[in-house]
Specification:
It is a single chain. This protein is an alpha/beta fold and about 260 residues long. It has two domains: about 5-15 and about 95-255, Rossmann fold (3-Layer(aba) Sandwich); about 20-95. The protein is about 55% helix and about 10% strand. The protein has helices at about 20-35, 45-50, 55-65, 75-95, 100-110, 125-130, 160-170, 185-190, 205-220, 230-255; strands at about 5-10, 15, 95, 115-120, 145, 175-180, 195-200, 225. A six-stranded parallel β-sheet has the order 5-4-1-6-7-8, sandwiched between helices. A two-stranded antiparallel ribbon has the order 2-3. Helix 9 (about 205-220) links the parallel strand 7 (about 195-200) and strand 8 (about 225). One of its GO terms (biological process) is DNA repair.
Length: about 260
């Protein structure tokens, strides 16, 4: 049973953008901590480790809980605007595609799949990443942002952006396959009822890859996890067989 739609996370799944984005975010997070008389400071990698998979608004919500501080909605909105401008400019300069993803997208464009991007990040940031890496041509306007596309901004692991994308694309969650690299993103896909393929190729060490592979499979229900995009054909075939088998079992059980 082949899926109708393939839904890709952007950051560190299609585009190597997380390190770049968190470099910019760290500057603003440290400003928040300083203004609240908190001595801790973050660099990009440290921020990525603590808040991977969250957009900046979600990051500030988590930061308030972690440090027991309160930011007004006006303050949060101001930081969101500043973060978006800072990170978008950096991505326009530095973003690169994940290794091996461009040939895969080029081949998929020849097939009858609906290709879409489903991200927690703000739409201008996602668009900048896709444009800089020249993969925007494969998605058209099928780019959905939890921070920008929804009536109420949210962040993965809330499944709202996935459900929104399915509605806009005219497909059911069971007709899709999602591609995610983080716990929060994978949890969002799982909670939306979308079969999941994990991707760990953007993690720098084998230890990090193995740890995330375990999270994606055992905690988030990924059917298969890719180390590199050249594993895509086999991964998609495995998911298709798994979904078909589950559907067959459901029909068989309904007979009794």
């Amino acid at each position: 049973m082949s899926p109708r739609a393939l839904l890709f996370d952007c950051d560190n799944t299609l585009v190597l953008s997380e390190d770049i984005a968190f470099e910019g975010c760290a500057l603003l997070v440290n400003e928040i901590l300083e203004k609240n008389d908190i001595s801790d400071r973050y660099n990009g990698p440290g921020l990525l480790k603590d808040f991977v998979g969250q957009n900046f608004r979600g990051m500030m919500v988590s930061l308030q809980k972690k440090y027991n501080i309160t930011l007004t909605e006006e303050t949060m909105a101001n930081y969101v605007d500043r973060e978006l401008a800072t990170v978008t400019e950096l991505l326009k300069q530095k973003a690169e595609p994940c290794p091996g993803v461009v040939p895969i997208l080029s081949e998929l464009a020849k097939e009858p799949y609906i290709l879409a991007v489903v991200s927690s990040s703000a739409l201008p940031r996602v668009v900048a990443s896709l444009h800089k890496t020249s993969i925007d041509q494969y998605f058209g306007d099928r780019v959905y942002s939890a921070a920008t596309s929804l009536p109420k901004p949210t962040s993965k692991p809330d499944p709202a952006v996935y459900l929104h994308a399915c509605e806009k694309l005219g497909v059911s969650p069971s007709e899709c396959v999602a591609f995610e690299d983080s716990r929060s993103g994978a949890t969002a896909a799982k909670n939306a009822g979308i079969p999941l393929i994990g991707y760990v190729g953007a993690y720098e060490t084998k230890e990090e890859q193995d740890k995330m592979k375990k999270v994606l499979t055992e905690d988030c229900g990924a059917i298969v996890v890719m180390n590199h995009w050249n594993e895509f054909p086999q991964a998609l075939e495995q998911v298709s067989k798994s979904v078909a088998s589950a559907a067959s079992d459901k029909v068989e059980r309904s007979r009794y």
